[in-house]
Design brief:
5 strands; elongated; two-stranded antiparallel ribbon; mainly alpha
Length: 997
């Protein structure tokens, strides 16, 4: 059922005329069929009516067209019959005029004259046909010489002769029979018209065509096409527009870019001059003579054929028979030649200039895209300048432009300069971007090789080995022959200077490559921004344009682009620093972290070296003064980098310099900036990451050692105490000798902390690291260490079982440790953090002293202070990387303590000086056990009780101290010096030696 219903619907949807009759009667009722029939019949009648109307309208048009054709036919027949009647009447009138009123003799004489005239007429026709036969050769000769006006005049004469002979053939029907060559010869001549026009239009497109050639070609077009000066002026502009476009056609690829651009300039300048010479006619004729086009056109239309010299009338029999109509032939114009109005000339010239600007912008822009160096652009610019300077017509250029354009026009500034500036900027940006990308790739390659065994990468993981290992290139071979003022970092300084600056071979290679690329860009740009001496000499006289007018713009572009490249490079380095910092925080593998630290420090050293070893970077960023300071003239010798640094600094460079930036003092005494603020910030960021990670590493190990219970055995056995004999007097006057044990050196974890810091500082070339960075490291470590001591005290108050108990023995050692740290890292500046640090240390010491018996503290303190001074003296060199941060020296805190007796020391107590090599370390040696505190001149305690009680007190004091090994006695030159209490004593001792000698 559903299928049948779908069939019904589809059948009903069909048009009625497409339905089958059976289906129609099956699907519709009778009433519906009748309605369909009525509707169908009405449609049929309506269509019949439309058809009748359409046929009637078309038939009426057809009848009208037929009537019109019939009328045209009748009119044409009437015209032909009238012309035939006129010819017959003219013939009869001539005959009647010749015969009327003549006698027989006269008619006989007239008959002879008629025969003679027929003979002359025959020879005239023959000479004209001979002239027609010679015309192709004459026209071809003129075409070969590109004398199109002469060819045009020959062609017009040929056409005139052919027209005259055609009229003669109508008078005498046997002319074509007698001279059948006439028809064929004109067919051979008629095609010269298109050839001449084609040649004339070719001349219009030639930039090398002279004004005379252009004017004669335009005259030929006017004569051959019956044109006007206004029409040929528009055609001339179109031809020159096409010529400009053809100069940029792909078929011109064999021509160099310089030649193409020179041709463009030549074509534009020549066109402007030719428009003025050929077409310009002033409104007041007294200003300048008539234009060249009208002058030549007037000459051609007024000069007879025999006077023009185109016909050889002398010595030629055929030329003598030529009729007067041929000899006196003069080309005529359809209308009088009117000069082009000044307004029309200016409007069309301005439109043509705008079109040329559009074509030149597109075409020259594509041509310059094939120029890959700024020097080639400078050569092209100089070639244009030289052409305009040597062109004598350019002297009246401005007046010509004012007449035909009503405004001044500069070929360089109006057409080419924006394109050249755009291309120079693109080349500079490309070279700078290439330098940046190359440096980034090299940095990536170097970073990937960190930790490998390659020869150039070992120094970046073991900087100390690189610095202290001698090599052949440490001192330049010519160093003895050069003065100190002529040396600079970038002029082959030698490896020793590089080692002093901690610039590894990898850093030197990166900076050298970057500097060479930038220096190449600067030298390439200077060829466009400056002139050689020979060019300066050629600049004598008026210049077509100022070649250095865009120097400021391009120098500013170099400055801006170089800054952008530097920022991109620093952004690249900063992204890596963030990744490495995250890696140091999340990864706990020491080997991986060590390699990551080396990468971070490599970036820090690179940022420091970029300003010092890449002088071209500073020159680019400083702008015009620095760029021109490198090479004021092409062809001159490039001065050294230190001389370029003497140039006046750019205010923007000065504005961005920062105190924490790496600055170097030159031999001239001047201070110059080696990096901008972002370069310094990247340098500081790298060392900040190193400081944070190193602080976290050493402090975590220190905290574990000082607080953890697992290290209690190490605390007992690894710390050495000194055994001191003291004498006490009882109330009854007896002397009692006893032994006490006093801390004589810092704990192993304190020494490990300090030594780890010094080793790492020396490993990374601490002598070249900024003092502020090292102070930041020391301050962070010292603050964290004090927090660890505070943590020990806080846990001792809570009696935490996971931590070692704070006994008197441990408290004495901690006091010694803290004071030793304060001695190595004094932090005596007046900053708030340092004052807080000093107060925190004093508070911790005070808290620890509360853990010690007051009597024992009074007994031990002098000895601890003496050992503290000796330990500091012995460790001065070992921890020199930390003690040298104090500008006043380790031993400037106070005078040495007075000694009651001669004591042997094994260290020379001289103030450390960061500017000199520090003393060599001497191993710590135990001193004799009978050492006494320098401040103790009387017995410490006079016992009022019995002797046994005194012995028990001494034994009690000694019981809390660890046992030590046997103490040996030593005496040396250093001990002799160490026992002297003051500098005056030391100087007197040396004077005694001198007097004895």
């Amino acid at each position: 059922m559903a299928k049948q219903e779908r069939g019904v619907v589809s059948a009903k949807s069909l048009p009625v005329h497409e339905m089958d009759t059976n289906i129609l009667f099956e699907k519709f009722t009778v009433e519906e069929i009748r309605e369909i029939e009525k509707k169908t019949r009405a449609d049929i009648e309506r269509k019949k009516e439309d058809l009748r109307i359409m046929v009637g309208e078309r038939y009426r048009d057809l009848i009208e067209a037929a009537d019109t054709i019939t009328e045209m036919k009748n009119s044409a027949q009437n015209v032909m019959s009238s012309i035939a009647k006129m010819e017959e009447m003219c013939k009869s009138l001539k005959q009647r005029h010749m015969i009327k009123g003549t006698s027989f003799q006269q008619r006989k004489g007239q008959g002879q004259q008629e025969g003679k005239k027929q003979e002359v007429r025959f020879y005239g026709i023959a000479s004209q046909i001979k002239l027609l036969l010679d015309m192709p050769e004459k026209i071809w000769s003129a075409l070969d010489e590109e004398d199109y006006l002469t060819a045009t005049r020959h062609f017009l004469l040929s056409r005139h002769i052919h027209t005259g002979l055609q009229l003669e053939s109508q008078k005498s029907g046997n002319l074509l029979t007698m001279f059948p060559v006439l028809t064929r010869q004109w067919a051979a001549i008629s095609h010269f018209r298109s050839t001449i026009l084609q040649g004339c239009r070719t001349v219009l497109k030639q930039a090398s065509a002279t004004d005379e050639q252009i004017a004669r070609a335009l005259c030929s077009i006017i004569l051959l096409e019956d044109s006007t000066p206004r029409q040929v002026f528009n055609e001339f502009l179109l031809a020159r527009t096409t010529a400009v476009q053809q100069l940029f056609h792909p078929s011109q690829q064999s021509v160099s870019v310089k030649d193409q651009i020179s041709l463009v300039v030549q074509l534009i300048t020549t066109t402007v001059h030719q428009i003025h010479t050929v077409f310009y006619s002033p409104e007041s004729p007294s200003d300048i003579p008539c234009n060249l086009l009208l002058g030549i056109l007037t000459q051609v239309t007024s000069e007879k054929q025999q006077d023009s010299g185109l016909l050889e009338t002398h010595g030629s029999m055929s030329a003598k028979c030529l009729p007067r109509s041929v000899l006196d032939f003069v080309p005529t114009l359809r209308s009088h030649a009117v000069p082009v109005s000044v307004q029309h000339l200016q409007d069309n010239c301005q439109q043509w200039i705008n079109t040329c600007m559009s074509n030149v912008t597109s075409g020259v822009g594509k041509l310059l895209s094939f120029v890959n160096t700024v020097k080639r652009l400078a050569d092209i610019r100089d070639e244009v300048w030289l052409y305009l300077k040597q062109d004598s017509s350019m002297q009246a250029w401005q007046s010509v432009c004012q007449r035909i354009l009503n405004k001044p026009l500069s070929i360089w500034h109006g057409f080419l300069q924006p394109l050249f500036i755009s291309r120079v900027k693109a080349l500079i940006k490309f070279q700078l971007d290439t330098s940046t990308e190359l440096t980034k790739r090299q940095i990536t390659k170097v970073v990937m090789t960190i930790g490998s065994t390659e020869e150039g990468c070992i120094a970046d993981t073991d900087l100390a080995g690189y610095i202290w290992q001698e090599s052949l290139g440490d001192i330049p071979t010519n160093m003895a022959w050069t003065t100190a003022t002529s040396r600079s970092t970038s002029d082959n300084p030698g490896g020793l200077i590089m080692k002093a600056k901690a610039f590894t071979p990898v850093i030197q290679s990166l900076c050298k490559t970057f500097d060479e690329k930038l220096q190449g860009m600067v030298q390439d740009s200077l060829s466009y921004l400056s002139l050689s001496c020979e060019e300066d000499h050629r600049m004598a006289g008026p210049e077509p344009f100022d070649r250095l007018s865009d120097t400021d713009t391009l120098c500013e572009h170099i400055q801006t682009t170089c800054k952008a490249g530097l920022e991109e490079l620093l952004k690249y380095l900063s992204e890596h620093l963030k990744l490495w910092e995250k890696s140091l925080q999340e990864i706990k593998d020491e080997n991986i972290n060590q390699l990551t630290q080396d990468k971070v420090l490599l970036v820090g050293r690179l940022c420091s070296a970029l300003g010092d070893m890449v002088p071209a970077l500073q020159q680019c960023i400083m702008g015009k003064s620095a760029i021109h300071g490198t090479d004021s003239h092409r062809g001159q010798k490039k001065p050294s980098s230190h001389s370029s640094s003497k140039s006046v600094e750019n205010p923007e460079w000065v504005k961005t310099k920062e105190r924490l930036c790496v600055t170097k003092r030159l031999h001239t005494g001047n201070i110059y900036l080696v990096s901008v603020e972002k370069l310094c910030n990247c340098h500081k960021e790298a060392y900040r990451i190193w400081v944070d990670h190193l602080t976290e590493t050493v402090v975590s190990r220190f905290r574990s050692a000082v607080c953890s219970r697992e290290h209690r055995n190490a605390l007992i056995h690894c710390t050495r105490w000194d055994e001191v004999n003291i004498e006490e007097e009882t109330e009854d006057g007896k002397k009692i000798s006893s032994k006490i044990r006093v801390p004589m050196q810092a704990s192993w974890y304190v020494q490990d902390l300090l030594y780890s810091l010094c080793r790492e500082i020396n490993r990374v070339g601490g002598h070249a690291v900024q003092r502020g960075t090292l102070q930041q490291l020391v301050f962070k470590v010292s603050d964290a260490v004090m927090k660890c001591f505070e943590e020990v005290i806080s846990h001792s108050k809570k009696n935490d079982k996971d931590y070692l108990p704070l006994t008197q023995q441990r408290a004495l050692q901690l006091i010694f440790d803290i004071k030793f740290i304060l001695q190595i890292i004094p932090r005596k500046d007046d900053t708030v953090d340092s004052k807080t640090y000093q107060k925190s240390a004093a508070r911790i010491i005070e808290t620890l002293e509360e853990k010690v018996d007051p009597f024992d503290l009074d007994v031990f303190s002098p000895y601890m202070q003496s050992h503290l001074m000796k330990q500091g003296q012995r460790s001065a060199v070992l921890y020199g990387a930390l003690t040298s941060l104090d500008r006043l020296g380790l031993f400037s805190m106070g005078r040495p303590v007075q000694s009651g007796q001669s004591e042997q020391h094994n260290v020379l107590p001289l103030t450390s000086c960061p500017g000199r090599f520090t003393l060599l370390p001497i191993s710590t040696q135990p001193i004799r056990s009978s050492i006494q505190a320098p401040v103790i001149q009387q017995p410490l305690y006079k016992a009022k009780t019995s002797e046994p009680h005194s012995h028990s007190l001494t034994a009690k004091a000694a019981a809390v101290l660890p046992q030590t090994s046997t103490i040996q006695k030593e005496s040396s030159f250093y001990n002799k010096l160490g026992s002297m209490s003051s500098m005056s004593e030391l100087s007197s001792w040396f004077s005694n030696i001198g007097s004895k000698s």
